[in-house]
Write a structure and sequence with these properties.
GO molecular function: cAMP binding; cAMP-dependent protein kinase inhibitor activity; protein kinase A catalytic subunit binding
Number of strands: 17
CATH topology of the largest domain: Jelly Rolls
Keywords: cAMP, cAMP-binding, Nucleotide-binding, Phosphoprotein, Repeat
Structural class: alpha+beta
Strand content: 25-35%
Protein name: cAMP-dependent protein kinase regulatory subunit
CATH superfamily of the largest domain: Jelly Rolls
Oligomer: single chain
Domain Cyclic nucleotide-binding: 79-200, 203-322
Largest sheet: 5 strands, antiparallel
Family: Belongs to the cAMP-dependent kinase regulatory chain family.
Order of helices and strands: EHHHHEEEEEEHEEHHEEEEEEHEEHHH
Shape: elongated
């Protein structure tokens, strides 16, 4: 029996912001602060522009059904994954249900923003004008469990895009004050915890810092004891792992005999073969000490690892020859 201790977990969901959009926000921050770009994005985002004052917890009356739905949607959103039970309760109390008809504008690019939204029901289109005078570009469709609008709260800048209800929709809104006092700090701690680690992972070293932070937001953590099987040969694969602590080996079972074919250390990654090739796991991965891994689920992997997809495919040859059937 494999013993696993889950240290933190959240289902996949996040605001899939365009990279140029994030870079625009950074430029605006620099203009306000009149200082050069920092390598640490989290330090810039969570710094002087969202200073705390006195906070009085907000409580919006809502039904038990609404509370249940909020909990479900928050469990899907990366942004809330670092909150403890007390912090979650405060955020749930502060959230307010908002209903929109198909065609309604929820936020408009250029407007001031004082709330973020978590989608509960329906679909919402995201549009952005990248250059004045050009037509707006459709970026994505937000689905239940996804969130949007936090950039205006993080950076104190106008709305970066327009969100319009594609169907009748219900969202839960969270005010700036609760976000700044509760969600922002917890998210910052999680980002800071993994920002340095991810910057040292060879695969990710050339990624934009913002792209690495999106990965940090999506990471889940799991602990394994010595000799635990992290993945097993022949199973369907839906996770991609980085080793944060400890050592692992890859083993291959042939004719009933299991033999070691590869080894892994801190900063190495595994699990990508099954996700890229859509095939069962080609080998076992076994912990050789106490091991802590951080991992992405398959949806997050495909959305966030895009910039290094070609590197992954190229690097598959490093051990694929050992695990061929």
């Amino acid at each position: 029996m494999i013993q696993k201790k889950v240290l933190s977990s959240s289902d996949e969901s996040s605001e899939d912001e365009h990279v140029e959009e994030l870079q625009d926000k950074q430029k605006l921050i620099q203009a306000k602060a009149n200082k050069p770009t920092r390598t640490s994005v989290s330090a810039e985002v969570y710094g002087q522009f969202n200073k705390k004052g006195q906070y009085q917890a907000k409580k919006v009356n809502k039904s038990e059904d609404a509370i249940k739905r909020i909990k479900q949607r928050m469990s899907q959103a990366f942004m809330f994954s670092a909150l403890d039970e007390h912090e979650l309760a405060i955020v749930i109390d502060a959230m307010e249900e908002k209903k929109f008809k198909a065609g309604d504008f929820v936020i408009k690019q250029g407007d001031d923003g004082d709330v973020l939204y978590v989608v509960d029901q329906g679909q919402l289109d995201c549009f952005k004008v990248f250059k004045k005078g050009e037509p707006e570009k459709h970026l994505k469709v937000y689905q239940p469990g996804e969130s949007f609008g936090e950039l205006a709260l993080l950076y104190n800048v106008p709305r970066a895009a327009t969100i319009k209800a594609k169907t009748d929709a219900i969202c839960f809104s969270l005010d700036r004050e609760t976000f700044n006092h509760i969600v922002k700090d917890a998210a910052a701690k999680k980002r800071e915890k993994y920002e340095e680690f991810l910057s040292k992972v060879e695969l990710l070293k050339d990624m934009d810092p913002y792209e690495r932070l999106q990965i940090a937001d999506a990471l889940k953590v799991e602990k394994f004891n010595k000799k635990d099987y992290i993945i097993r040969q022949g199973e369907q694969g839906n996770t991609f792992y980085f080793i944060q602590k400890g050592d692992c080996i890859a083993t291959k079972t042939e004719n009933g005999i299991e033999k070691e074919v590869y080894s892994y250390k801190v900063g190495d990654y595994f699990g990508e073969l099954a996700l890229i090739k859509h095939e069962p796991r080609a080998a076992n991965i076994v912990a050789q000490s106490e091991v802590i891994v951080v991992y992405l689920d398959s949806d997050s992997f495909r959305r966030l690892i895009g910039p290094v997809d070609e590197i992954l495919k190229r690097n598959m040859s490093r051990y694929e020859k050992y695990v061929k059937k």
